[in-house]
Amino acid sequence: MRVSRGAKIAGGTVLGLGYAFLFAPILSVIVYSFNESRLVTVWSGFSTKWYGELAHDDRVLNALRLSLGIAAFAASGAVIIGTMAAYALARFGKFRGKALFSGLVAAPLVLPEVTTGLSMLLLFVLMERLIGWPQGRGAITIAIAHVTFAVAYATVIIRSRIASLDPALEEAAADLGARPFAAFVAVVLPLIAPALAAAWLLSFSLSLDDFVITAFVTGPGATTLPLLIFSSVKLGVNPEINALGTLIVGVASMVALTATLLQRKSG
Amino acid sequence: MSAATARRRGVLALPWIWLGLFVAAPFVIVLAISLSSAGYGSPPIDFFIGWQNGHPTFNINLDSFELLASDQLYIRGFLNSIAIAGLTTLLCLLVGYPMAYVMARAPARLQPLLVMLVILPFWTSSLIRVYAWIGILKENGLLNGLLLHLGLISQPLVILNTPIAVQIGMVYAYLPFLVLPLYATLQKLDWTLLEAAADLGAKPWSAFFRVTLPLSWPGTLAGALLVFVPASGEYLIPELLGSSTLPMISTVLWTEFFGNRDWPMASLIAVMLLLVLAIPLLFLRGGQATAGRV
Known about the structure:
- The complex is a heterodimer.
- Chain A is an all-alpha fold.
- Chain A has helices at 5-33, 49-55, 58-91, 98-110, 113-131, 139-163, 167-175, 180-209, 212-217, 225-234, 239-266.
- Chain A is globular, with a radius of gyration of 23 Å.
- At the A-B interface, helix 1, helix 3, helix 4, helix 5 and helix 6 of A face helix 1, helix 3, helix 4, helix 5 and helix 7 of B.
């Protein structure tokens, strides 16, 4: 169908306004991170001094280190458990408890974060009382909680990739004498590798970004980056947060681009 | 037990243990705590099942239930959440439907880029994106600066810490959740049907309402629920952009737990939140099943 000139202009306007709405806030953070003034909304000249202050702020660096460690652990755990769950859901046909199983896998996708956070905290408190572990709360309980919600996302990504593979490939490997685990490693794993990487990256960035669930399951001393940002945002806008936000946006965009390309490749 | 069965159990063991311990058990515990009394120890609860002299004791406490039903605070929190999430869904539809429509009709080579641009904010720190709106909406912020500069207003508008700021932040945060499924549905739509409608004399608007809109219904429904369900449990946006002007139910739960240390009440709100959300979710499953067939 031919698209008229008027329709093209109208369409362009709709998209332009929509994308402006989505990106203007992020751009304002980036622009003002290079502002010299401490007053965030008065432009007084270009400066990178807030980045310098950031690099010397021990609280930020410690929080960053903690967050990166937890995110790497959570992403790895989520991909391992997510691969097993995805393989079972995609390849095992009907198995006992499948409806419950897939419900539990998907639950963190649909539960409100406050519910997930509160209920996991209550579990940790009760476990400590009954079996003495985990002692108190901190990095370990945050990592467990992050693995748990990331499994939901990882399973969705990996499952759709496994489901698109031809089961005949594994059967051929079996016919040629490969044991099931060897067939999985030699045939399935290389084919789903891009999906595994995409799932890892998504889990990593979700963990790095989580505030609500972390706030419930953290303990004294374990301040992740979002917890630190939240407490300083409550005190008002400040240029150091703009600089930190710009760095986070930069890293997140690269991670998102990589993951999208990986998923497109895995089709 | 055959080798195949053993293998299956091996693959399923770790996911079952993890999901049972960290997804199913917490849910049961939240239910149990909502029936218990608030205590003064650490943790501040008297558990509703106890064990004394070799037999179990029950001390079920329904105070939280009575309070939930009688105190306006909780009911208002729920109503606020539903109203804000509903309005967010509606506004996202008004903004997002035209966007998804234009994206689906754009030249094919442009479409991956357009989709990427909608996904990108979704990957970016939600905390930073909400924080950005504080700088825009506050009294000496960017929006007021711009409007004053253009001479459209003579006094700065008070937007931050009002329900309007919360609503802007909500639409901003949830727009991609609506655009993406809707685009996916519209993109698969058979546009020759519109040509057929035009050939049969339908005006473009009437063709839209009688052909495009009904065919895109599954994607619209899926997108609307993907916005409504998480929006009604949102905590960060009402907290940061609304201060306490508009308590949503998640904010109330947060205050009960962290402020009042009333664990049973917080647990009861969590359970109620599940019940309120479980109903739309049933629709979501149906909606997705339908969307999958289109």
